[in-house]
Write a structure and sequence with these properties.
Layout: H1 25-34, E1 47-48, E2 59-60, H2 82-107, H3 119-139, H4 146-149, H5 174-197
Parallel strand pairs: 1-2
Helix pairs in contact: 2-5
């Protein structure tokens, strides 16, 4: 759980296509969670979400009112609080997700300019592109597209089984808020300790 996993791998792929890009993220998430075979959340794991989502069980959002974007740590700027350090790690991990979408668009030209098709048809196009991408990642030892973006696959997990009760809605809880705060403190303290040792 305390690992910033590479989400480009084949494990845990979930696709919900068909929503318009202008739809509110929270509404799309509610739809994904309410479906019969909806978005699975393995017990003890979480999805990284941006500040537009609720920080609730299974969904880890950044701290608000803290530096967040990678550009804010350029030129040797260091994190000074656990919340800032957490946000830096969070945005780095989310950057990997953005790279995954970049790889998809590089490989499948049809999704670069799919707006010429009706929404329903776009969903039918996107689904096989994602599934083929997962198949390629699973069966190719070297994917030439990754050379453009780099390969972070060494962090992939093998276990894809789901444990526990499914999450069917997201609401903030003090327990989850405390967990995020404690996690931020733990990784910040580890980083500070390693800096002083080196």
């Amino acid at each position: 759980m305390e690992k910033w996993d590479n989400l480009c791998g084949t494990e845990g792929v979930y696709i919900l296509a068909g929503w318009e890009g202008s739809s509110v993220d929270g509404r799309v998430l509610r739809d994904a969670l309410s479906r019969r075979n909806g978005l699975p959340i393995k017990d003890g794991y979480y999805y990284l979400v941006d500040a537009g989502y609720t920080n609730g069980k299974g969904f880890l959002a950044p701290f608000r009112d803290q530096r967040y974007h990678l550009s804010e740590w350029r030129n040797g700027r260091q994190s000074t609080t656990p919340e800032e350090f957490f946000n830096m790690k969070h945005t780095s991990a989310r950057n990997v997700i953005e790279r995954c979408f970049g790889m998809l668009k590089m490989r499948w030209g049809i999704i670069r300019n799919s707006n010429i098709y009706p929404i329903k048809q776009q969903g039918r196009i996107i689904m096989p592109c994602f599934l083929l991408q997962s198949h390629i990642r699973e069966h190719m030892h070297v994917d030439p597209i990754e050379n453009v973006y780099g390969d972070d696959s060494q962090n992939e997990e093998e276990d894809s089984g789901l444990d526990g009760e499914p999450v069917t809605y997201v609401e903030p809880t003090q327990e989850w808020t405390n967990w995020r705060y404690n996690f931020a403190n733990q990784i910040f303290n580890d980083w500070m300790q390693n800096r002083h040792v080196a």
